[in-house]
Amino acid sequence: MRKEEIHRIVVRGPNWLGDAVMCEPALSQVRTLFPQADITLLVKPAIADLLAEHPAVDRTLVYDDRGRHAGLSGKWTLAGVLRRHRFDLAILFQNAFEAALISFLAGIPRRFGYATDGRSLFLTDPVTLPFRNGQRHQVQYYWDLLKPLGGHGPASAPRLFVTAEESASMATRLADAGIGPADLLIGVNPGSTYGRAKRWLPDRYAEVANRLLKDMQADAGVRVGVAVVGAKGEEQLGQEIAKQIKTRTVVCSGHTTVRELMALVKRCQLFLTNDTGPMHVAAAFNIPLVAVFGPTDWQTTSPYGVEAKLVRQPVSCAPCLLRECPIDHRCMTGVTVDQVYDATLQHLPLAVPSLPTQPDPSPRSIDPMWLAGVTVFLDRDGTLNKDTGYIKSPDELTLLPGVGAALARLKKAGARLVVVTNQSGLGRGYFTGKDLEAVHGKLHSLLADDQVTLDALYFCPHHPDDRCNCRKPASGMIDRAVAELGVDLDRAYVIGDSARDIELAKQVGMQSLLVLTGPSGTETLADLTLRDLSPDHVADALPQAVDWILAHATGKPVGPQVSS
């Protein structure tokens, strides 16, 4: 396939809310693989709402299979709509036979999807199903579909987007229910549209919430509210739980649009949930969450890329994937209140950050997410971890002092963290892709000890002689972050220990911070000064660089001085 000849792409997304969230990294990857193409998303109404603000999508077509697109005549009507758009390529993440048939009837010349459900005849580029060994996560399943198109590397964590107006509207709605903007909000998601077998017992949800209320109010002295979420038909379930909770509780079950649900979940500081679509929404917003798993497979549909706490009762009949339990529902009744409560306690330091003893007049006291919309790009070697040369194995990776705690401060304030690192050791043959994946797995694990999750990690695998567009100071990795994450470069920072990091920041117009923890810190600063490329700030180490960003983002006057 000559990618430069692909100008118009239609992407058929999944039908279910949770599946659509798990497909989001692959959707972003389509934009990376075809940066100049016009991308149209074809999905059902609820998924169209879910992905309405996604930066990888140019437009959305709604597949109304219960209305104008119902039946054979409706499918023919939809095919006609697609035909008029003159798409060059269809990428089918939805696995059904009809997805391939409709793209065939639409006359799309290249039709790309998994060879499943007997539809290979209608695909010009059928992709062999990956071996399902019980360990492959659904996020990776969607991601792997793009490998024949040039997709590579590990899948990033799913992300969703809401507007400031949507967040403000939800804040007003909560305030009307007695839950103010400074109150801590616990979300409870007790239902499941897939079937009752996935539901933990409602009175146990209420008991866990009441224990948490007692802890939070006694230890942190904060006001706490609870929001019960769910789909239409789950209103009574929500009311049953709300009656038992001993604080201000708003029941939103059946009374929110998809966009309103997203804004509500994003507002929560802690989320208790079954294995359902809203669980994945919470994970995409990096909300601390505890998920109860019963009949479904936690290995393939657990929250991806976040530090979620999963609670399950291992029984011989699970995962059965049934909607209704034919026996005694032991996978759910066996999950105790103590188990879920103990899991939530591990999230409380993140959900309830330390509060100042005196009123703080800075923006931090007004908005707990005062760095929302800010992105901090981080170099790896010499900035996050000790630079010992080419790191070839996890055993060689050691974080620099204070890195985890410093990044946790940025995350709690709402900033996004993206690692961008040159790894020419791959191109030089010093280590393999699997070796690098293991090293980055160690990095994720070490940061998780401080409740830090990276929003993305990009690396350049090329030899310096390859003259690629991604090796710093080239901007390829930043361009990818802008396309996939919607980064606002006017509200972005680069922290690194080398001249390349500062040059990169200057090139794309970001604030630049040099840390002196690399192998040639003072020499690098002297070189940059001679070249008239002085960074906006110089810090002894990452914690001091974070101090400067926190001050700079408030609008306080700060200069390019050295902090210690």
Short description:
By secondary structure, this protein is an alpha/beta fold.
Written account of the structure:
The chain has 564 residues and is α/β, with parallel strands linked by helices. The protein has 3 domains: 3-149, Rossmann fold (3-Layer(aba) Sandwich); 164-351, Glycogen Phosphorylase B (Rossmann fold, 3-Layer(aba) Sandwich), CATH 3.40.50.2000; 365-563, 3-Layer(aba) Sandwich (Rossmann fold). It is 37% helix and 15% strand. It is built from 21 helices and 19 strands. It has helices at residues 17-33, 45-50, 71-85, 97-105, 138-144, 164-176, 202-219, 235-244, 258-267, 277-284, 298-301, 330-333, 337-345, 348-351, 403-412, 424-428, 433-448, 476-485, 499-508, 521-530, 542-553, and strands at 8-12, 38-43, 59-62, 89-92, 110-114, 125-127, 184-189, 224-228, 249-251, 270-274, 289-293, 309-312, 375-378, 416-422, 456-460, 492-496, 511-515, 537-539, 562-563. Strands 15-14-13-16-17-18-19 form a 7-stranded parallel beta sheet, sandwiched between helices. The chain has a 6-stranded parallel beta sheet with strand order 3-2-1-4-5-6. Strand 1 (8-12), helix 1 (17-33) and strand 2 (38-43) form a beta-alpha-beta unit. Helix 1 packs antiparallel against helix 18, helix 6 (164-176) crosses helix 9 and helix 7 (202-219) crosses helix 8. It is globular, with a radius of gyration of 24 Å.
